[in-house]
Amino acid sequence: MRLSLIFCLIFCLWLTACNQAVNKTQSQFTPEQFAAMKWEEVVARARGTTVNYGMWAGDEARNRYFQGAVADKLKQQYGITLKIVPNSDVAEAVNKLLNEKSAGKNTDGSLDMIWINGENFRSAKQAGVLWGPFADKMPNIKYYDEQARTSDFGTPIESYEAPWQRAQFVFAHDTSRVPAPPKSIEALREWIKAHPGRFTYIAPPDFTGSVFIRHLLLHFGGGAKKFQTGFDEQLFQTAAAATIEYLNDIKPFLWRKGETYPATQKEADRLFANNEIDFTMNYGPSFASERIERGEYPATVRTFIFDEGTIGNYSFLGISFNAANVAGALVVTNYLMSLENAMAQGKTLGTLFPLSLNLISPEEKAAAEALPRGVATLSIAELNAHQIPEPDAQYLARLEKEWAQKVLQK
Amino acid sequence: MHRLTKIIAAIVTLSLAVIPVLLLVIWSFGKAWYWPAILPRAWSGRAWAYIFSPEANVGAALLTSIAIALAVTAIALLLALPAARAIAWHEFIGKRVLLFALLLPVLAPPLAAAMGVHSLFLRYGLADSITGVVLVHLIPTVPYTTLMLAGSFSRFDPNYEAQARTLGASWLKTWQYVTLPAIAPGMAVAAAFAFLISWSQYLMTLLIGGGRIVTLPLSLVAFQRSGDEAITAALSLVFLAPTLVVFAIVARFLRDE
What we know:
The structure holds 2 protein chains of 2 kinds. Chain A is of the alpha/beta class. Helix content of chain A is 46%, strand content 14%. In chain A, α4 links the parallel β1 and β2 (81-87). In chain A, α5 runs parallel beside α6. Chain A is globular. Chain A starts with a helix and ends with a helix. Chain B is built from 11 helices and 2 strands, in the order αββαααααααααα. Chain B has helices at residues 2-29, 46-51, 58-89, 95-107, 110-123, 130-154, 158-166, 171-199, 203-209, 216-226, 229-256, and strands at residues 30-31, 42-43. In chain B, α3 packs across α8, α4 (95-107) packs across α6 (130-154) and α7 (158-166) runs antiparallel to α8. The radius of gyration of chain B is 22 Å and the shape is globular.
């Protein structure tokens, strides 16, 4: 009796699995066909389809926003059903595409579009698992300047991904503990030496820890500009030597004398919240405000950046080489790039405004600058004025290796 | 004296079981909990509000998890019953080799096996489907269920079956009135194991389900990695609930014996 029930259940599941056939001929086409197509036609072909969007899903507010406001909007305006395929690391989604490619699954892939950037974009583009070129043909690309369209960590974008979000590295401190944080690399060195055990950084290759040492590399190499055009061995050698020297100089004064480092963002955040260290760092400028809101940090926490600026980057949306629904993915991507979404997202999530302030009207600019932001978040103007572009991705890998050999193991 | 030890043992066991759960409850409602506060300085229903909100899709994940675990349990038992019977009652050439082969998926990391079948599944359209996830969950479950049931069968004298058949019972009746009642407790434990193994799979579900099949562990890990303690704790409690139900059912079976 019980068994037969279970069998019924299995049968039902199987039926629903089979039932997921979609009308694909309309919504699948090549980049060449897209280039010759009017945008209205893309929108028309996307109507009534479902888009599978591979997205990092570790943030409650963000999940709510996408499953709620964005999904509703897409449904109303374009008749598109947005289905979030959650991942806890973008690399998972890229690996999935690589697997599908090697298994010869060239159509009807499981993901239509993914949120991607940096090293993941590099490997995805090299392996040919991205659909494109398409980004420069998107209507809303008009809001993004050259910086957002040319290179992603030194990898030429060549229209294979579309910009839609921006991030910038910030430090957080608790004003009740450290009222005046050090705002330059040398001031930080002195602060660390004067306060032994109260500073540490996340061990690379963690994303955030890696940005911190990368910033030092740019600083000692004489500015970010030199690091934009390919890999220069000579430049790397001198800049890396100075970076390693700095890191070894502060090492004995770090938390636990630099014998160990927090391995993840989460660990560093805990150390900070538990008053074991006085600073934490993050690649999201609004992270501290979110944590205050959630009650994880005291309300006296604020963020700050170096006077010389901090590294910032864009993140992008890519379309899968085997997307079952290209039309839908294009429409969703274009919506996420829009001024409307940037404003709505800024309002609900407090994310950094990604559009170029020079490419929108003065009224729109005023509205963007007036967006409410969390108590601990710096203003768009201040962040914009202090943004340093990411170096070529090859520097990143080399520096992480140097760090492991000459700082960690020393 | 003897009673005292009993009471102490009971208290220790109970607190070992209850304290972690209690901590999870505190975490799930806690706000502003940092050193040196012993209890959170403020409380909030944010995590639970999120979990019960339609955007969180926790209900769907829960149903998917339960459906997969039930299907895995049923299939694992069906596969294990004849195999266990043969292993327990019959001597045949290569039995030890077979036992070793049976244990292999447990000895080798099941993930290795899963990665191997992934490309195969992709080719046959089983990847990203519930069917595929159920199949891959069978890799770590079938060995356990088979070995446990083999234990039950070996403690049961096959002559009872023979006797029932001599007395004119059909094989179905024999199964229903003789064999099944004898191995029922073992079956209940094996089923519980199969359910729990499937229930707690993360990597294999992620790999074969490709993120399209969202079970509870998948959402749990996403929040755990991002460091949202309150939601992680609340989801952990949701994750825990069905396992308690399973244990309650198994406990009943064992008592009936």
